[in-house]
Please model this.
Amino acid sequence: MILDLPAPDTQGDHSLVECTRTRQSIREYSDSPIPLQHLSRLLWSAQGVTRSDGKRTTPSAGGLYPLQLRVLVRRVEGLEPGVYDYLGDSHSLRLVGRLPSDETMQSVGIGDQPWLAESAIVIGVVADLAGTVRHFESQPPVGERGKRYVYMETGALTQNVHLHATDLELGCVLVAGFDNTRATEVFKLSPKLEPMALLCLGHGPSKCQE
Ligand SMILES: Cc1cc2nc3c(=O)[nH]c(=O)nc-3n(C[C@H](O)[C@H](O)[C@H](O)COP(=O)(O)O)c2cc1C
Model:
């Protein structure tokens, strides 16, 4: 099932300088759902297509775009809970599975990370790491260059989302301390995809986050 997302709001309420100044990791969330419009903006900020040649909001080495988003939706207005793939070309979502239990999500984190089970959404950033390594194997250090590119792209993507979450007054934390095998199982990744980062997002416990 494919669901079109509303067009992202590309104006925003706060300046980039203000978002940069006030960005912080927030690990507690209220039970209120986030608007679909917010999800639209967050996913667009991560991998939205912005130009007629298919290029996106986040830079990518050689324009290869090895990153993909698999989104776990718990509380988004007008969206059935479940696991969705973001399709950047059409700015839409494809339902790919059922929501894992809170207990299962908790088991993904290294140590106790309840925010993995409590956030309104978890954006899973996944990559064709081996494919990128092969693509750049002529660039030294052999086998390493492609990996470095993917890690850098993941950092750029996650900072984009973090800054847009700040603009939307949503709480956000980047979780990179997770068990790769568990994350691969829980997000039901195909063998060529590896989990790179998880972004937990939701309304903070209070509207004021400064
Ligand atoms: C590469 C990386 C991995 C991180 N992994 C986790 C994590 O697994 N769990 C978590 O709660 N926070 C994680 N964080 C968030 C950091 O704990 C947080 O950024 C740091 O404490 C600074 O706080 P601030 O983001 O509020 O400025 C990670 C941050 C980075 C950059």
